[in-house]
Design brief:
This protein is an alpha/beta fold. The protein has three domains: 158 residues, Rossmann fold, CATH 3.40.50.720; 162 residues, Dihydrodipicolinate Reductase, domain 2, CATH 3.30.360; 82 residues, 2-Layer Sandwich (Alpha-Beta Plaits). Helices cover 36% and strands 26% of the residues. The strands form three sheets. Strands 7, 9, 10, 11, 12, 13, 15, 16, 17, 18 and 19 form an eleven-stranded mixed beta sheet that branches. Strands 3-2-1-4-5-6 form a six-stranded parallel beta sheet, with helices on both faces. Helix 5 links the parallel strand 5 and strand 6. It starts with a strand and ends with a strand.
């Protein structure tokens, strides 16, 4: 057997401790598959005294994570700290400069600095492996970068944030409050250090930017993504969705359109019988459309210690085997500059919910505005009767243009009988 692959791990939280555990628990299997042992020789975290539920008496402890890059007893640097800047970025740069392969679960780092890091890695003849950065235990990076390498991919759509999917699922099934369920997701180790990254859609957007870069062979400017989170998804919208035969999911969608690449993260109504609508809890799912492969649907656990550690260790096994794939599936210089379509260019159907005073003529005013903007309705719902008081009205449109919907909603919101800003949820046929 060849000499061991020596691994330095920075960050020993949910994922880092999970990787140490997995490498110990499956040492023999991993050595057999990799053709040589994979051993942890050095580690770093902030608090040396913290109990982490793993044995750490063998590896060298570094107080400064960046020192792992210079440790002669480390072949591969694994970054499991998190964040697009600070220590994580400094460690990535130091590892690459030191000629060491770099493994990370850090989608923020790759979404923001992926192109520059790939250029540096190519110049230093090392690679960056990041299976764990997207969809936890689902091997979607491998699927796009290797399995579908012969295809032009036209569309990537998925549930990319386990925390949001968990929250939306529990809110729907148990009719519980958003805040209470978020606290539960944090306790289970699914949420980011700053959970607003999860619930405001930023984490899903980081992952979508990575998938889009791989799928379309393009440099994606993270700032060009349209991002909405789940804070404004209310119990009433979840109930109306159920009544209309939909489920609300936070989706990340990257697709080639006539107006350019559409890149968006937002809550969406998905017909309840479509496979993606049935993906619940912390599970993620990704639908890939290749021109020769046809549709490929992947589903699995998108967050948590075990699934994420599984993806990190898969990258380590590849490196131990000597497999080095170009960071973005092709040379960085071969990537195209993406032309991004603004969200106002989107065509689709919409769920609109208004809170209006129950009085004669309100619906006539609303539908007249929709008519003026060329928006046709598929259905309308109003329950109960409360003369002179607030009632919710739901309108479902046929396919239309987002710019027209925005213009109509601005006029509808200004009607005296409309009491709150209208709610808009895009309908995705999938
Ligand atoms: P945690 O917050 O659980 O762990 C972060 C670790 O980084 C801690 O051990 C912390 O040290 C250490 N750390 C923080 N700052 C520094 C620093 N300046 N120098 C050295 N170590 C530092 O995060 P997770 O394990 O959840 O996430 C790690 C990465 O994996 C992130 O990029 C995240 O986005 C990604 N990820 C997480 C998933 C999950 O399910 N949790 C799933 C997929 C990806 P200490 O323990 O001493 O405080
Ligand atoms: N916070 C992320 C999630 C972790 O909930 O999906 C996995 O990347």
């Amino acid at each position: 057997m060849l000499k061991p692959l020596k691994v330095g791990i920075a960050g020993l939280g949910t994922v880092g401790a999970g990787v140490v555990k997995l490498l110990a628990a499956q040492a023999e299997l991993i050595a057999a598959r990799a053709g040589r042992p994979v051993v942890v020789t050095a580690v770093s975290a902030r608090d040396r005294t913290r109990e982490r539920g793993v044995k750490l008496d063998g590896p060298t402890w570094h107080d400064d994570a960046v020192a792992l890059a210079q440790d002669p007893d480390v072949d591969v640097v694994v970054e499991l700290i998190g964040g697009a800047e600070g220590k994580a970025k400094a460690l990535a740069q130091a590892a690459i400069a030191a000629g060491k392969d770099f493994v990370t679960a850090n989608k923020a780092l790759l979404a923001v600095h992926g192109a520059a890091l790939a250029r540096a890695a190519e110049a230093n003849r090392v690679t960056i492996a990041y299976e764990a950065a997207v969809a936890g235990g689902i091997p979607v990076v491998k699927a796009l970068r290797e399995g579908l390498a012969a295809n032009r991919v036209s569309r990537v759509a998925g549930i990319l944030n386990g925390t949001c999917n968990y929250i939306l699922t529990v809110m729907r099934e148990e009719k519980r409050d958003f805040a209470e369920v978020l606290a539960e997701a944090q306790a289970l180790g699914y949420a980011e250090a700053d959970p607003s990254f999860d619930i405001d859609g930023v984490d899903a957007a980081h992952k979508l930017a990575i998938l889009a870069g791989l799928a379309f062979g393009a440099r994606i400017g993270f700032e060009s993504l349209h991002i909405e989170g789940i804070r404004r998804v209310s119990a009433i919208d979840i109930a109306f969705a159920r009544e209309l035969g939909y489920r609300i999911k936070l989706l990340g969608i990257a697709e080639q359109t006539g107006a350019g690449i559409s890149l968006r993260v937002h809550p969406a109504m998905v017909p309840e019988r479509k496979p993606i609508a049935t993906v619940d809890g912390v599970f993620n799912a990704v639908l890939l459309e290749g021109d020769f492969s046809g549709p490929v649907f992947l589903r699995g656990r998108g967050a948590g210690e075990g699934p994420t550690a599984s993806a990190v260790v898969a990258d380590l096994i590849d490196l131990a085997r000597g497999i080095r794939v170009p960071v973005w599936g092709m040379a960085e210089s071969a990537l195209a500059q993406a032309h991004i379509a603004p969200i106002t260019e989107l065509n689709g159907a919409y769920f609109l919910r208004l809170s209006v005073v129950d009085q004669p003529g309100v619906l006539a005013d609303v539908t007249a505005i929709l008519r003026d903007h060329g928006i046709s309705l598929e259905s309308m719902l109003q329950h109960g009767r409360a003369p002179g008081e607030a009632v919710p009205i739901v309108l479902v449109t046929h396919e239309t243009h987002e710019a027209a919907v925005n213009a109509a909603l601005a006029r509808i919101a200004a009607l005296p009988a409309v009491l709150e800003p209208p709610a808009l949820i895009r309908i995705e046929p999938q």
